[in-house]
Amino acid sequence: MNTRESPSSYDQLKASIEAHVPVSAATVLRGPNAGEKMLVYADRHIGTLGDSAFDLRVIESARRLLGEGLSETLELNGPDGPVEVFFESFPPPPELIIFGAVHVAQPLTTIAKQLGYKVVVVDVREKLATEERFPDADEIVLEWPDVALSKRSVDASAAIAILSHDPKFDEPALLGSLSTPARYIGAVGSRSTNQDRRERLKAAGVDDDNLQRVRGPIGLNIGASTPEEMAISIMAEIIAARHGRMGGPLTTATGKIRARA
């Protein structure tokens, strides 16, 4: 679909963002048609930057950056020479799925929401998984992990935190999580608990590559002891994984401090 930009394009962009529909706004900064804007979706685009062949290059770049969750200025070849285009990506919010409505899950939910995540809390215990205990959660699911995951579409931007200490709950959660492309999978427990868990998962047929995807003990090593500190530790590791960082101190870091955004 291709229609010229209308005066309501801002409203369309705003509506898409509010509805969590992935969209990229491509604006010509320098070159012919400076100031012109195109909205690019996964299956369509709205507007034109003046040339159909150039539009295709813009659409390709917009969808690539949108898939990576990046906003960036690129210089592309236009019909009359280089054209500078700013791509502002609005991907849907990343999802954090928390298995286990335990104490740590409460501050983790709040922190994740403040960071723009869609938070889903999964537990079979109705007394724990309540709106009163998790007022910031977008969704509370009263099901076993494998059942809950079988009904969800989990993409590569998702993070999964398994906070239960009960093998009857956390191992189905891990097996189900490893069947998804989720970028982050973390499981609570001591080193010995996680080692035992890995042995059981291996016996269940999980290969070494998938075992390496499980971060356990969950979180960064900041000496966390309270539920709030543990939530910060977990969320910090999720952020680091999202940006491909190790999570060490900035005083010893090399390269750029901030991730591309």
How would you explain this protein's 3D organization?
By secondary structure, this protein is an alpha/beta fold. The protein contains 8 helices and 12 strands. The protein has helices at residues 9-18, 52-68, 105-114, 145-150, 167-178, 191-203, 208-211, 227-242; strands spanning 2-3, 23-30, 37-40, 45-46, 72-78, 81-90, 95-99, 118-122, 139-141, 159-162, 184-187, 214-215. The strands form 2 sheets. Strands 1-4-3-2-6-5 form a 6-stranded mixed sheet. Strands 9-8-7-10-11-12 form a 6-stranded parallel sheet, with helices on both faces. β2 (23-30) and β3 (37-40) form a beta hairpin. The longest helix is centred in the N-terminal third of the chain and has 17 residues, at 52-68.
| Spatial strand arrangement across the major sheet | 1-4-3-2-6-5
- Principal-axis shape equals elongated
How many angstroms separate the termini? 28 Å
* Count of extended strands: 12
Please provide the ordered H/E string of secondary-structure elements. Answer: EHEEEHEEEHEEHEHEHHEH
Q: Radius of gyration in whole Å, from Cα? A: 22 Å
The largest pleated sheet is described as:
6 strands, mixed
Q: Which class do the helix and strand fractions yield?
A: alpha/beta
